[in-house]
Backbone:
């Protein structure tokens, strides 16, 4: 698709991605909820919980993960004690699944040079991610040999690696089988994704994992660009001997998740769900100690506010989940498929604490899939993480994108908080909801040079970012849990305004496309018109569903008057689409 877009198109798209919420009674209620949660959300407390979680390598089923879950459980339990104003407001349970295999328990590792000099190159104590996940224990000394690439048989054809430690450029997971099958004693990987900016951070080390392999019993060490360059330089002129000492073990214990709920008093079987994955490498401060800690503080803020009477109890149940990414969310869903059908919306917190000044990553809303996921056009954004593939046939419209963006815009405008959004890319716990056609949005920070690396440390976390994210997510979730018709009416206006702005943007893009292809021959012109018609009709169908979905927001049966309002907005949208088709001969 062409990159050119008219200036008016750019402005319209920007406005549609950041709609301003209408100032109505419900809008004012949303501001009030935000103000209340803002008072109760203690940034310092969320930071302390983040620091605790970041101490551990958090493999589901492993002791580090379980220690963090126990910490969260203790704090949730404290909210249920009789002496606390939150008594009877909240319940929780630890859900367990049988182990699916051994969980890796890292203890220590040291990579040392023995010749041409003796010194430590990397240690687990200072850089835990040097040790590739699922490495087996070892203590060996061996010469090192460099295999450029290292993940194909041809690259080994001229070199005998038996009894040697292979230094390679490929990710350890794609190189270790070939190296070990050729008799290598072990593996060092220099692999470093470009988003980690190794040229600027020569001591950074990327986190990685091996498949569990009790036949080869491999180990792999991830090394920094600085050490990699030094070893390669030395090997040009002389032998280099290394010693690798690794202490690890494997355990088989239940896989645990924590589910806490504030029960709704009108429609308790309907839910708003908030999710953060607890598992990850050490330290994994932004990813995802930040999401786990912020989620706990959101829960505390809401429970405390209900307990002291500043918030009324919700109409719908609000569910909080601390999970093993994907697997834990899927487990919660499988336990009660009927419960999942009644989830109105899901909010996923994954990397919500990164300091933009230090990491380069702004707070982002990853929208649920809409037609811009299928037809990506400037000024839509990808984050830089990657792109996802979504089948057009599986698109479904919802109020959630524009509603949540309006909540973010409110706080962004008041706090001077830098925020943005991107089309759906996938890769976190919003996906299991979306696969089941449940509206879900992801809150995160990206790009982040420290992502999945040794530099994802507590020092790169901003308590202010965590609070801005936590209060915004809590406001959006709790307002939906209230389920008043006033709230629904405000959301209807927000979605209606966004749909009109999207249609204006589509008109500008359509005009540009037709004008550009008219000079390219009749065949190109007709093909462009067919595609533009498809895009227009897909967006129209998506927003028609989004407007209709607002009828699910009231916890009570919607009034006839409100149903008429919704239908009127849907009819106006369809009329505008028909008019647009006529103007452009579609």
Residues:
């Amino acid at each position: 698709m062409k990159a050119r877009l008219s200036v008016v198109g750019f402005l319209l798209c920007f406005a549609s991605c950041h709609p301003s919420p209408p100032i109505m009674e419900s809008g004012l209620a949303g501001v009030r909820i935000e103000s209340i949660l803002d008072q109760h959300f203690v940034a310092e407390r969320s930071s302390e919980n983040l620091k605790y979680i970041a101490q551990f390598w958090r493999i589901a089923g492993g002791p580090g993960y379980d220690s963090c879950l126990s910490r969260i459980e203790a704090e949730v339990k404290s909210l249920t004690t009789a002496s606390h104003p939150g008594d009877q407001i909240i319940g929780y349970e630890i859900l367990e699944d049988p182990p699916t295999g051994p969980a890796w328990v890292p203890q220590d590792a040291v990579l040392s040079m023995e010749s041409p000099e003796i010194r430590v190159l990397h240690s687990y104590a200072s850089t835990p991610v040097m040790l590739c996940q699922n490495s087996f224990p070892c203590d060996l000394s061996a010469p090192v040999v460099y295999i450029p690439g290292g993940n194909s048989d041809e690259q080994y054809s001229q070199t005998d690696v038996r009894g040697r430690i292979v230094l390679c450029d490929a990710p350890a997971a794609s190189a270790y089988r070939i190296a070990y099958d050729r008799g290598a004693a072990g593996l060092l990987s220099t692999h470093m994704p470009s988003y980690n900016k190794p040229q600027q951070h020569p001591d950074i080390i990327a986190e990685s994992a091996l498949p569990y392999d009790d036949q080869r019993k491999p180990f792999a060490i991830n090394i920094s660009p600085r050490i990699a360059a030094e070893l390669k330089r030395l090997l040009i002129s002389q032998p280099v001997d290394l010693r690798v000492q690794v202490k690890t073990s494997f355990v088989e214990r239940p896989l645990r998740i924590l589910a806490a709920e504030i029960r709704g008093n009108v429609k308790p079987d309907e839910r708003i769900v908030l999710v953060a994955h607890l598992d990850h490498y050490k330290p994994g401060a932004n990813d995802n100690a930040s999401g786990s800690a912020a989620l706990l503080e959101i829960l505390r803020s809401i429970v405390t506010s209900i307990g002291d009477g500043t918030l009324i109890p919700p109409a719908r149940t609000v569910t909080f989940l601390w999970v093993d990414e994907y697997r834990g969310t899927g487990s919660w869903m499988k336990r009660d498929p009927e419960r999942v059908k009644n989830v109105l919306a899901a909010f996923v917190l994954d990397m919500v604490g990164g300091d933009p000044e230090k990491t380069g990553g702004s707070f982002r809303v990853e929208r649920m899939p809409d037609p811009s996921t299928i037809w990506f056009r400037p000024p839509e954004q990808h984050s830089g993480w990657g792109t996802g593939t979504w089948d057009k046939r599986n698109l479904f419209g919802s109020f959630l994108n524009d509603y949540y963006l309006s909540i973010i815009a409110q706080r962004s405008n008041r706090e001077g908080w830098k925020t943005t959004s991107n089309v759906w890319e996938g890769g976190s716990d919003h996906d299991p909801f979306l696969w089941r056609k449940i509206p879900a949005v992801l809150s995160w920070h990206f790009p982040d040079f420290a992502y999945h690396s040794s530099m994802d440390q507590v020092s790169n976390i901003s308590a202010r970012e965590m609070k801005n994210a936590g209060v915004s997510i809590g406001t959006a979730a709790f307002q939906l849990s209230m389920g008043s018709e006033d709230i629904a009416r405000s959301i209807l206006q927000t979605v209606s305004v966004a749909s009109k702005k999207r249609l204006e943007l589509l008109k500008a893009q359509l005009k540009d496309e037709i004008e550009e292809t008219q000079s390219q021959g009749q065949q190109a012109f007709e093909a462009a018109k067919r595609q533009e018609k498809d895009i227009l009709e897909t967006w129209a169908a998506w927003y028609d569903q989004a407007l209709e979905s607002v009828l699910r927001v009231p916890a009570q049966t919607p009034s006839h008057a409100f149903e008429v309002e919704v239908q009127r907005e849907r009819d106006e949208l369809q009329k505008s689409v028909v008019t647009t088709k006529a103007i452009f001969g579609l």
Summary: The mean pLDDT is 93. The chain has three domains: 22-101+254-482, 105-251, 485-584. Residues 363 and 445 are 5 Å apart (CA to CA). DSSP finds 17 helices and 15 strands in the chain.
